[in-house]
Amino acid sequence: MLLKTAHRATWLLSAVSLFTVAATVGCKKEHGADVVASVNGHAIMRSELDRTYNDQERGKQDQQPITEEQAKSDKLTLLRTLIDTEITEQRAAKMNLTATNEEVDAKLTEMKSHYTEEQFNQMLKESGRSLDEVRRDLRKQLTLEKLFNKEINSKINVTDGEVSNFYNAHKADFNLIENKIHLAQIVVTNQPSQQAGGTNLQGSKAGNDADARKKIATLKAQLDSGADFSALAANYSEDPQTASNGGDMGFISESQLRQDAQVWDAVSKLKAGENTAIITITPPGSKQPVGYSIIHLVSREAAGQRDLTNPAVQQSIRDQIRNTRSQLLRSAYIEMLRDQAKVENYYAENIFKAGSGA
């Protein structure tokens, strides 16, 4: 009797387990065709993916059309970035770090300060973006800045010992065998972006040559009006190597600069703190420009050993260590948040099913 009861209990538990599994599978949350992914239940819409993709593809209008497979691959990469952005925004909201309306308004006022109302509205029209879209992007930018500053940058401490160790390990790098020039740059290209998430804080990218010329002219006007070079570079420059550092290119030898006659001619006339006129970037052997730049002269350094007691040397080392550490911690932080999130990539699932016959 006890054996039969045990068998009956086992059968009932098995039945309940099977029913639970069946119910779970059968009740999987449905999603509409206009939803490409979900992060902790929050939908990422196809319209957002398409808009982001189209913004990056506008620069390809004169190139050979890409295949459907390549377009899908590019969208998969972009969607990964949109998912990561949603994950970090949700984390910021949980920590009460979402940018306030007042912060967004202040940033918008700062953006508009160098234009008349008519000029600003014309810029919106040319970019194809509404004021609400600008405010949305500003809120995202400010929110992520607040999150990364609290979770990452505020926790990075570069000690005097680390600065000293870095200097000793790279002392030869501070021995200038020839005169060097410390430069920063703002770059705007007419080429399609190769960075899925954009290269600057604003996510700003010119779509074609006309957009690139308008954008660089606008930035030059802001610089002429007294805008901070590093801030503009961080927000709008499209060079993936320097934008995150406020356009800082570091020290470049005179011999290297002389290899580009146009750049050398422009830079050699500058005094510290001055900017070049707009420089057209044209590859060797080509007549078609690929972009435009403005170069800022930070300082000039004469040949010779630069000592650790030099405040500029110390600051450059601290900045380099801090930036390197910040990038590493940011990547690790996003990976951790992704592991904690429930992400469903419907777009990837559909591609796999269609390609594999599943």
Named at the architecture level, the CATH assignment of the largest domain is Orthogonal Bundle
Number of helices: 13
Structural class from helices and strands? alpha+beta
State the low-pLDDT regions, or none.
Answer: 1-28
> Could you state the order of secondary-structure elements as H and E?
HEEHHHHHHEEHHEHHEEEHEH
Q: Radius of gyration in whole Å, from Cα?
A: 26 Å
Report the major sheet: 4 strands, antiparallel
Give the CA-based shape: globular
Number of domains: 2
CATH class of the largest domain: Mainly Alpha
Structure, explained:
The chain is α+β, with helices and mostly antiparallel strands. It has two domains: 39-60 and 70-153 and 326-356, Triger factor/SurA peptide-binding fold; 178-302, Chitinase A, domain 3 (Roll), CATH 3.10.50. 54% of the residues lie in helices and 13% in strands. The protein contains 13 helices and nine strands. Strand 1 (35-39) and strand 2 form a beta hairpin. The radius of gyration is 26 Å and the shape is globular. The two termini are 48 Å apart. The model is unreliable at 1-28 (pLDDT under 50).
Please tag this protein with its features:
single chain; 358 residues; alpha+beta; Triger factor/SurA peptide-binding fold; Chitinase A, domain 3; 2 domains; 3-stranded antiparallel sheet; 13 helices; globular; disordered N terminus
What topology emerges from the helices and strands here?
Blueprint: H1 2-26, E1 35-39, E2 42-45, H2 46-57, H3 68-94, H4 101-112, H5 117-127, H6 131-151, H7 160-169, E3 175-176, E4 180-189, H8 209-224, H9 229-236, E5 248-253, H10 254-257, H11 261-267, E6 279-281, E7 291-301, E8 304-305, H12 311-340, E9 343-345, H13 346-356
Antiparallel strand pairs: 1-2, 1-9, 3-8, 4-5, 4-7, 6-7
Helix pairs in contact: 2-3, 3-6, 4-6
